[in-house]
Design brief:
70 residues; mainly alpha; Arc Repressor Mutant, subunit A; two-stranded antiparallel ribbon; 4 helices; 2 strands; 64% helix; globular
């Protein structure tokens, strides 16, 4: 669940390694890959800077709505 909360903060970061350092989140890349396997698509493009895919944008919008409702 924490990894899902951190995904929006990845956007614009230069790399997953940089995001892990900036967010003090160990194994963020591994957790992201695990979530992507579960949902069946890539959420974050591993480009410089990190960006979302089309399906990733839709998922993140749903996740953000869900967390606001909790």
């Amino acid at each position: 669940m924490d990894a899902l909360r951190l995904i929006p903060a990845l956007l614009g970061m230069p790399s997953l390694a940089a995001a892990e350092r900036a967010l003090l989140a160990r194994h963020l890349g591994r957790n992201l890959s695990r979530i992507e396997r579960m949902v069946g698509f890539t959420i974050i493009e591993r480009t410089r800077p990190l960006t979302t895919t089309g399906p990733g944008q839709k998922l993140l919008a749903r996740v953000e709505r869900l967390f606001r409702e909790l």
